[in-house]
Write a structure and sequence with these properties.
Chain lengths: 738, 200
C-alpha cells in the first residue's frame, strides 16, 4: 500500500464527476452529422393559403389505394409534403383503422424507383418520350378507324368513376373485353355464398357472434376487407368475449389470434365441415330441414372415424368443436376461405362450411344481407384469377390486338404453368399504366407513368361492402412529385377524348369530369345541398353515404360433394402460396417498411422461407435456417426452412410476394416466388386457380452464408420464465369474475 | 499651495460628484431602457458561425433596428408553430412594391416575385433531425405567458438563441445551439428535463 491508494468510495466519486464532465463536454460538442446550416435551402411560400402554417400539419381525407378494400384515409400534409397516413373515422369500411400496407403507402409515393416519363419501345428497349408522342401512338392504335380492332383491358379491381370511364372507353371501341385479375381474391367463396345464401357477399356479423369457426379464412390478414374484420374482431373480443377457433393447414394471422388452432390435412377442410354437420344433426339434434336430401345423405356418411382418418385431427377435437357450435347455436358463425378454398374442390369445401351456418340457424342472425349498392355502374369489378384465364384464352385465340394493363402485375403473379407469359407476348401492342418498372411493365410497348395514389383524383366503392354503403373520395393530398405522371382517371379521359371528343372534350381534366359527375347525381342524394356545397362536403369528409338497396338472403338447398384425400407418394407435400397482409401478392415488395416488418408467423424479414412442421423437418434432416429445394412439376425454388407447429406435417407454406426479377432496387432479387412453380390446377366449379393444391417434393440443399434467413427473436418459447403471464379462461372467470 | 491644493481637491471632488451623479443617472436610465426580460435567465454561450451567403443580402438591421419592425411581423409563424418560418415572398412585396424599389436588392427580389419563385434562402440555424424544438412553446413561456413582458420587446427573447440579429445584415449563427446550451437554459429557467421532450 502506498500513499496514492484511493478507496472504492473515492474512486466512484471521481468517476462520477469525471463521467458528468465527459457528458457535459459531449453536450457542448457541435454535432457534425445532420446539421444543414449553409447547405439546405429553406424555400418560403410565394403566397401561402391563409390556413397554411409551416410546421403544422393539415389533414386531407382521401381513399387508400393499396388494396381493393377501399379504406378511407386521412393524410397529414406539412409544407406541401405528405408525411403520415391514418384511417378516416368517417369511412364505414375501416372506421379510423388502417393496416400496415396503408400506413406504408407514403413509401410507394416517395419511392425512388417511380417511372417519371412515358416510355415507348424502340429498337428493343424502352426509351423516354413525351406525352404528345405517347398520345399520338395511342391515337394510331385506338383512334379513328380502330373500331373493330380488338382492344382489351387487363386490370386489378376497378371501381367508381374510373370504372365508368373504363367501360366508356370499351364501349366507344365496341368491345367488352375487360379482364379483372387479382391473385388474392374471394371468388370461390363469393360463388359458394351466392349458391348457399343467394347473395355473393353477405355480411358476417362477427361482432355479435359468440363463437366463430374459421375454416382457413384469414379475416384479419389477407382477406377482402382486413380492416373491417379487425374492427369487428375487436368488438367480438370485448366482453362477453367470443371464442375464435381456426382450422387450417398452415397458420395465418387470424389463426395466430385464435383461442384454438387446429391443424387439418391440406385439402380435407370440407371433410371436417361435413363431419361437424353430421355430429350437429345426429348427435346434437340440430335442424336439417334447410338441406337437400342428397346433401343429408352425403353428410350421414361422414362419421367421426371418417373425419379423423381423412383430416388427421383428434376425435376429441372434432367432437368438442361440434359441441361448442351446438351450445352456441344460432350465435355461431362459420366462415371459410383462404387456404381452405385453394383446391380443385375448393368450392365444395366452401359450400360444406356454409351449410354449417344453415344447420346452426345462424343465417339471418350472424350471416346477414349487406343490402345492394344502388349505383351498379360504380360498384367494384372485383378481380379473380378467372379474369386471367379468360385473358389468356382470348390472347391465344388472337382476339386481342391492343391490351391496356393497369393495377396488376400478371407476369409476376401468374404461375409459369398457366402459360401467361406466352399469351401476353402474342398481343401485338401492350400498353402498361404503372408507377413502377415491374415484370409486366418491362414487356410493354408503351408505358404510361401513373401518379401515386396520393396524387390523383378518383372515387372508389369498396369491393367488400358492409351494410353501410358509401362512395369514397380520393383526392390529391399534395402536388405531383413528377410533373409528367398522370392519374389513372386522367389517362382514361385522354383515351376517351381520342375516341369521343364530342362528349369528353369539354373536360379539361379528370377533376372537372368528377365535379360534373357529382353535379349530375340525383338531387335527393345531395340532401338539399347545392352542387358546390355537396362537393366540398364530400372532399372534407372523404366519403359520401349511400342508402343500400334492399336485399334478402334466401337459403337454397345446394348439393355438396366432398372429395377424399388423395396421396401422391412421388410428391408427398402440399405447397401453399400463402397470402399475407404485408407484401400481399408482391405489389408491396418495393416498400422497405413492409420488407423490414417481421412476418406475423416466422418473424423473418427481407426474404422468403418455407414453413413446415418440426416432424417433417426432422424427417428431411433439416432445422430452422437450413435451405431446402421445393420442387413441383413446374419448377423449383430454394428457400430457408422455418419449422414450427402451426403447419400440418403434410403441408409446406411459402408466403407470396417475394422473388421479383424487376420492380426496383428494394424488391429485385429478394427471396423467391412460390407462385411461379404452382400447378395450373383450377377449382372445378368456378375455374379459379387452386393456390394450395400443388404437390411438391422437398429436399435439403446447401446454401451460402450471405443468403441465410434473418429473423427477429430467436426463441419460440419463454423457456419457463413467464415473461408473458397467462391464465386459463375458466380459472380467470372463476377468480376474476366474468 | 495648501489653498490651491485644497481647491484642486474640492474641484476633483466636485467633478467626481457630478460624474457619479451622471453615471448613476445613466445607469438608472439605461436600466429602464434596457431592462432584462422578466422571469428569464438568458442562456450563456457564444459561437462564431460561418458566414452563409444568401441569394439577397437581406439587411436585418434596416428592418428590425432602424425601422423597428417586430421580428414576428415577418417571422409570423414563430408564435403559432414549431418553425418560425421564412416570410412568404408576398409579404416582402407587400411593402416593396412601393418602398425602396430603386435599390438593387429590391430589384432582385422583384425579379424572383415576377418569376413566381421564392428566393432560395439558405438555412443558418439548424438543430439535428433528432431534436424537436418548437418556437411556439418558447415564445409562450418567455413572451405571451410571461407576466411583465411586452410583446414589442420580443427581439430580446429571440436574441437568447439567435443573437443580436437586429445588428446584422444576413443572419449569422452566434449561439452554439448545442444540447449543453439548451440543457443549462432549461435548468436555469425551469424548462422540462425529460429526454423525450426534445428527442421524440
Amino acid at each position: 500500500m502506498n500513499g496514492n491508494d484511493i478507496d472504492r468510495r473515492s474512486f466512484l466519486k471521481v468517476m462520477g464527476w469525471g463521467g458528468a464532465g465527459v457528458a457535459l463536454a459531449g453536450c457542448d460538442m457541435p454535432t457534425t452529422v445532420t446539421l444543414e446550416e449553409g447547405k439546405e435551402t429553406v424555400v418560403s411560400y410565394l403566397m401561402p393559403e391563409e390556413y397554411v402554417i409551416p410546421g403544422r400539419g393539415v389533414w386531407y381525407a382521401s381513399t387508400c389505394q393499396q388494396c381493393p378494400s377501399g379504406c378511407g384515409i386521412h393524410a397529414r400534409v406539412r409544407e406541401g409534403r405528405v408525411l403520415k397516413i391514418e384511417g378516416n373515422p368517417s369511412s364505414p369500411v375501416n372506421k379510423g383503422g388502417l393496416c400496415m400496407m396503408g400506413q406504408a403507402s407514403v413509401q410507394s409515393h416517395y419511392n425512388p424507383d417511380r417511372i417519371t416519363k412515358p416510355m415507348m419501345r424502340s429498337g428493343g428497349s424502352l426509351v423516354e418520350v413525351s406525352w404528345d408522342d405517347a398520345l399520338a401512338a395511342l391515337k394510331t392504335t385506338t383512334g379513328e378507324g380502330a373500331e373493330g380492332s380488338k382492344v382489351a383491358w387487363l386490370t386489378g379491381t376497378v371501381s367508381g368513376h374510373q370504372r365508368v370511364l373504363l367501360d366508356g372507353h370499351l364501349d366507344a371501341l365496341g368491345t367488352d373485353k375487360h379482364f379483372s385479375y387479382e391473385v388474392i381474391n374471394g371468388a370461390v367463396v363469393r360463388a359458394a355464398a351466392k349458391a348457399v345464401y343467394g347473395d355473393e357477399q353477405p355480411e358476417y356479423d362477427m361482432a355479435n357472434a359468440s363463437v366463430v369457426l374459421s375454416i382457413g379464412s384469414d379475416l384479419l390478414g389477407a382477406s377482402d376487407s382486413p380492416m373491417n374484420y379487425s374492427r369487428q374482431y375487436a368488438e367480438f373480443r370485448n366482453a362477453p368475449r367470443g371464442t375464435l377457433v381456426q382450422v387450417e393447414s398452415s397458420m395465418s394471422l387470424t389463426g395466430g389470434s385464435a383461442d384454438r388452432w387446429l391443424a387439418v390435412r391440406p385439402g380435407t377442410e370440407g371433410t371436417l365441415a361435413m363431419g361437424l354437420a353430421n355430429l350437429l344433426l345426429s348427435k346434437h339434434g340440430k335442424d336439417g330441414s334447410g338441406l337437400s336430401a342428397a346433401t343429408k345423405a352425403a353428410i350421414s356418411s361422414f362419421t367421426v372415424d371418417v373425419v379423423v382418418k381423412e383430416t388427421e385431427m383428434q376425435a376429441a377435437d372434432v367432437e368438442s368443436l361440434a359441441q361448442l357450435l351446438a351450445d352456441k347455436g344460432a350465435n355461431s358463425l362459420v366462415v371459410v376461405g383462404g387456404v381452405a378454398t385453394g383446391y380443385s374442390h375448393g368450392y365444395q369445401t366452401a359450400v360444406a362450411s356454409m351449410l354449417l351456418n344453415v344447420i346452426l340457424g345462424s343465417v339471418g342472425k350472424t350471416v346477414k344481407s349487406a343490402g345492394g349498392f344502388p349505383f351498379e355502374q360504380l360498384s367494384a369489378q372485383a378481380g379473380s384469377t378467372g379474369g386471367l384465364f379468360e385473358f389468356t384464352d382470348s390472347a391465344n385465340k388472337g382476339d386481342i390486338d391492343v391490351v391496356f394493363v393497369y393495377g396488376t402485375n400478371p407476369v409476376f403473379t401468374a404461375p409459369t404453368s398457366t402459360g401467361f407469359a406466352d399469351s401476353f407476348a402474342k398481343v401485338p401492342y401492350k400498353v402498361v399504366l404503372s408507377q413502377f418498372e415491374d415484370e409486366t411493365t418491362v414487356l410493354a410497348d408503351l408505358v404510361l407513368p401513373l401518379a401515386s395514389g396520393l396524387e390523383e383524383w378518383g372515387t372508389h366503392v369498396a369491393a367488400h361492402q358492409t351494410a353501410e354503403k358509401s362512395i369514397s373520395i380520393q383526392q390529391p393530398v399534395m402536388e405531383k412529385l413528377y410533373k409528367e405522371t398522370k392519374g389513372f382517371g386522367d389517362v382514361l379521359l385522354d383515351l376517351l377524348k381520342i375516341r369521343n371528343e364530342a362528349d369528353f372534350g369539354k373536360f379539361d381534366d379528370y377533376y372537372a369530369y368528377l365535379v360534373s359527375a357529382f353535379g349530375a347525381l340525383p338531387a335527393d342524394f345531395k340532401g338539399g345541398a347545392d352542387d358546390k356545397t355537396f362537393w366540398q362536403n364530400a372532399l372534407s369528409s372523404g366519403v359520401v353515404a349511400v342508402e343500400a338497396s334492399k336485399a334478402d338472403l334466401s337459403v337454397a338447398k345446394v348439393d355438396v360433394k366432398v372429395a377424399s384425400y388423395a396421396k401422391d407418394a412421388s410428391r408427398p407435400y402440399n405447397l401453399t402460396a400463402s397470402a399475407r397482409l404485408g407484401l400481399w401478392d408482391g405489389r408491396y415488395a418495393n416498400i422497405p417498411w413492409l420488407q423490414e416488418a417481421p412476418d406475423v408467423i416466422s418473424k423473418a424479414v427481407w426474404g422468403s422461407w418455407v414453413e413446415m412442421h418440426p416432424i417433417t423437418a426432422n424427417r428431411l434432416g433439416v432445422k430452422t435456417g437450413d435451405f431446402v429445394k421445393v420442387e413441383s412439376e413446374h419448377g423449383s425454388i430454394e428457400v430457408p426452412v422455418y419449422a414450427h407447429r402451426g403447419v400440418h406435417p403434410d403441408a409446406m407454406a411459402v408466403p407470396m410476394g417475394q422473388g421479383h426479377k424487376e420492380y426496383g432496387r428494394f424488391a429485385k432479387g429478394v427471396g423467391v416466388n412460390p407462385l411461379s412453380i404452382l400447378a395450373n390446377a383450377k377449382d372445378e366449379q368456378t375455374g379459379e386457380l387452386a393456390l394450395s393444391s400443388t404437390r411438391v417434393n422437398v429436399s435439403k440443399v446447401s446454401f451460402n452464408e450471405e443468403d441465410k434467413m434473418v429473423r427477429f427473436g430467436g426463441s419460440e418459447s419463454q423457456v419457463g420464465r413467464k415473461l408473458v403471464a397467462s391464465i386459463k379462461a375458466d380459472v380467470f372467470n372463476r377468480t376474476e369474475g366474468a | 499651495m495648501n489653498n490651491y491644493s485644497n481647491r484642486l481637491c474640492t474641484g476633483v471632488a466636485k467633478v467626481g460628484l457630478v460624474a457619479s451623479i451622471l453615471l448613476t443617472a445613466v445607469l438608472i436610465l439605461s436600466s429602464v431602457a434596457y431592462a432584462e426580460v422578466p422571469n428569464a435567465v438568458p442562456p450563456k454561450g457564444e459561437y462564431q458561425g460561418e458566414h452563409v451567403p444568401q441569394p439577397i443580402d437581406f439587411p436585418h438591421d434596416t428592418h428590425a433596428k432602424i425601422n423597428g419592425i417586430n421580428c414576428m411581423y415577418c417571422h409570423t409563424y414563430a408564435r403559432r408553430s414549431k418553425v418560425a418560418g421564412i416570410p412568404p415572398t408576398s409579404k416582402c412585396m407587400g411593402c416593396h412594391t412601393v418602398i425602396a424599389t430603386d435599390k438593387d436588392r429590391i430589384k432582385r427580389l422583384t425579379e424572383y416575385w415576377e418569376n413566381n419563385e421564392p428566393p432560395p434562402w439558405k438555412k443558418v440555424h439548424d438543430v439535428p433531425d433528432y431534436v424537436h424544438f418548437t418556437h411556439e412553446k418558447h415564445l409562450a413561456r418567455f413572451v405571451f405567458e410571461n407576466e411583465g413582458m411586452d410583446v414589442d420587446r420580443v427581439s430580446e427573447v429571440c436574441a437568447f438563441c439567435h443573437g443580436e440579429v437586429k445588428d446584422m445584415t444576413v443572419a449569422e449563427k452566434t449561439k452554439p445551439l448545442t444540447m449543453g446550451f439548451c440543457q443549462r437554459c432549461h435548468e436555469a429557467n425551469g424548462g422540462p428535463s425529460d429526454c423525450w421532450k426534445c428527442h421524440k
